[in-house]
Amino acid sequence: MNTATQDTTARPAIRIVLADDHQLLRAGLRLLLTGLPDIEIVGEASDGLEALALCETLRPDIVLMDIAMPRMNGLDALEAIRQRELAQHVIILSMLASEEHVLRALSLGAAGYVLKDAAPAELELAISAVMRGENWLSPPVSRQVVDAYLARISETTKVAPLNLLTPRQQEVLRLIAEGKSTKEIAFALELSIKTIETYRTQVMEKLGLQDIPGLVRYAIRHGIIPLGE
Predict the structure, then answer these.
(1) Cα 52 to Cα 17: distance, rounded to the nearest angstrom
(2) How far apart are CA 220 and CA 223, in angstroms?
(3) CA distances in angstroms from 121 to 33, 91, 112, 170, 183, listed in the order given
(4) 3-state SS string over the chain?
(5) How far apart (Å, rounded) are the C-alpha atoms in residues 103 and 221?
(6) Three-state SS sequence of 58-109
(7) CB–CB of 173/209 below 8 Å?
(8) Residue range 163-198, pLDDT digits in tens
(9) pLDDT tens for residues 135-159?
(10) Which of 23, 3, 22, 17 shows the shortest CA–CA distance to 62?
(11) Integer-rounded Cα radius of gyration of the chain
(12) Which domains can be identified in the chain, with CATH numbers?
């Protein structure tokens, strides 16, 4: 009797280090992840320094790491791990969902950012995504965070977003950041209110921003207006 040949070659397990200062949370993650196929928990750390030491020894595929940890926080550990190429990928697992924390993590080389209140299935999806070379952000992370990240990445390329603005668009951006109303800007530049609104929309689209506060932060960050103006 002929039987079909089966591929019995086992895929290598995804080797994961858990880094979180809460032992109970690590235990829950271990229980969750060891129940998934092709995943092996190879080490646990309670702070950033321990995570760094484990990565130097184990060279894991993925580090699942909290931000708020003693001795060395997760972002500092992330930076060291990525600079020294001690792990293939780092996924931040945190309760912190602010634009500042997400952008900082991504800029330092995090492959994913998962919120701790996410459904268990999301963590499996995140791991699969980063192992495919993709990035993963929890859905509650706002569109503004994603746009701001893309704008920041664009700033490292040959043409910075600010250089994409025409002189008039830069002038409108400066006046908006200084707190001028659309009517005041139109009067100052001797243009119609509709024209100023068009310029404002164009500026937001080119910079990947969604609102006036975002424009103000961008202007301060790039020295268009001084901090506190």
Answers:
(1) 10
(2) 5
(3) 10, 15, 15, 45, 50
(4) CCCCCCCCCCCCCEEEEEECCCHHHHHHHHHHHHCCCCEEEEEEECCHHHHHHHHHHHCCCEEEECCCCCCCCHHHHHHHHHHCCCCCEEEEEECCCCHHHHHHHHHCCCCEEEECCCCHHHHHHHHHHHHCCCCEECCCCCHHHHHHHHHHHHHCCCCCHHHHCCHHHHHHHHHHHCCCCHHHHHHHHCCCHHHHHHHHHHHHHHHCCCCHHHHHHHHHHCCCCCCCC
(5) 14
(6) HCCCEEEECCCCCCCCHHHHHHHHHHCCCCCEEEEEECCCCHHHHHHHHHCC
(7) no
(8) 677 888 888 888 888 888 889 999 988 889 988 988
(9) 888 887 756 566 666 666 555 544 4
(10) 17
(11) 23
(12) 14-139 (3.40.50.2300), 152-221 (1.10.10.10)
Pairing of strands 62-65, 14-19: parallel
What is the sign, positive or negative, of the torsion defined by CA atoms of 102, 108, 114, 116? Answer: negative
Give the integer Cα–Cα distance in Å for 36 and 40: 9
Q: In whole angstroms, what is the distance from residue 44 CA to residue 18 CA?
A: 5
Confidence label for 223 from pLDDT (cuts 50, 70 and 90): confident
Place of tokens 């791991």: 127
